[in-house]
Amino acid sequence: MTPDEDPTADFLDSVRAGETPWRQDRPPDERAPSPAERPERWGRTRAAGRAAARAAPYLQAAALVAWLASGAFDDGSGNQSG
Question: What's the pTM value of the predicted model, to 2 decimals?
Fold first, then answer.
């Protein structure tokens, strides 16, 4: 085998996929496709999701504080019978 021959490179060249159309450059005179329109009916759902995402850290902090407080005020009696 000569130093110019590389069997790995030859194999990779044989199995490499061709250039896909969405990765090719668009001709300069062609305009970009317009983005898909989002239906307005999902506006409230997206707004509620954003509000929940913004409130999540506060809810987690409140749950942690409640858990710590319940441990601090526990009298140790537990729920043991007998």
Answer: 0.37
